[in-house]
Amino acid sequence: MADAVRKDEDFSGTKPVEERHRVDEAQLAAWMAEHVEGFAGPLTVLQFKGGQSNPTYRLDTPDRSYVMRRKPFGKLLPSAHAVDREYRVIAALGKQGFPVAHAYALCTDDSVIGAAFYIMSMEEGRVFWDPTLPHVDASQRRPIFQSKIETLAKLHSFDPAAIGLADFGKPGNYFARQVDRWTKQYRASETEHIPEMEKLIEWLPRTLPVQERVSIVHGDYRLDNMIFHATEPRVIAVLDWELSTLGDPMADFTYLLMQWIMPGLAGIDHHALNIPTMDEAAQIYCGVTGTKLPDLNWYFAYNLFRLAGILQGIIGRIRDGTAANAKAIESVKRMVPMTKTAWEYAQKAGAV
Prior knowledge:
The protein is α+β, with helices and mostly antiparallel strands. About 40% of the residues lie in helices and about 10% in strands.
């Protein structure tokens, strides 16, 4: 979401494992032979191009392919990169028929490859990085968006307690926790004084919306965090559950709606491209969930603040040498403009 429009081919597919991300492949294969049902080597390891948070690998064997997500090596912010939480949520959702990769096994023993990791199935399909879907037939674009939105609505329909995730998040107001979390993450990685960020840190906690529902929230629900069927316009796997927790589903949905105000869908001819407008996207979601759309200005200010906190964390990892993607340096350029835009939405919501 925070990224400008990018070419699919630049971020899709795999590459040889970068030297700084290499793992002991023999140790990994031995662990998988013991813990992953049906595993049989030899093992070939590649690294996915996309993503800059938890390093992600493609593991090929003669019979099938797997995906490994691991924590970055080196010093990390508190609570960040919790691959055990990712594993837990996809395992629980997979049992409910929600579109996620199959969760095979979790390893919390750093001695195996140097960091905690988990193994899941490799889901073959399409990943889209450009939200205008330039390489997709126009007739498929609206159904792709509809599937994306309806899948989010399905996620928000689960009773966390009923699927074994009652304790997956803390009690209390989700937005209050998130504002506090990202304020702390921002402070832990702070590299410069940004006046708009200081204003948001002061204003957001005083103006929190009332939380009416609690659901599983993905935390980073966007087009390039899902795999679509190879030919059909439907989601077959939602990826990257690093930020998932229990909270207010409107946080997820308004984050998704931000795509319409950011580079990508902002200013496009929706009718000509056969892509839903923001209002039409809201109608799809609200039609499935039976909810009403709130005034979006506060939520957009919050979401941009949160993105700024995430970007600052990436900037901090660049400084500390643990960022997983060379393109992470682009985050530095987006930081200040994003905070200025966030404060503009805060002002529209009544901030002075």
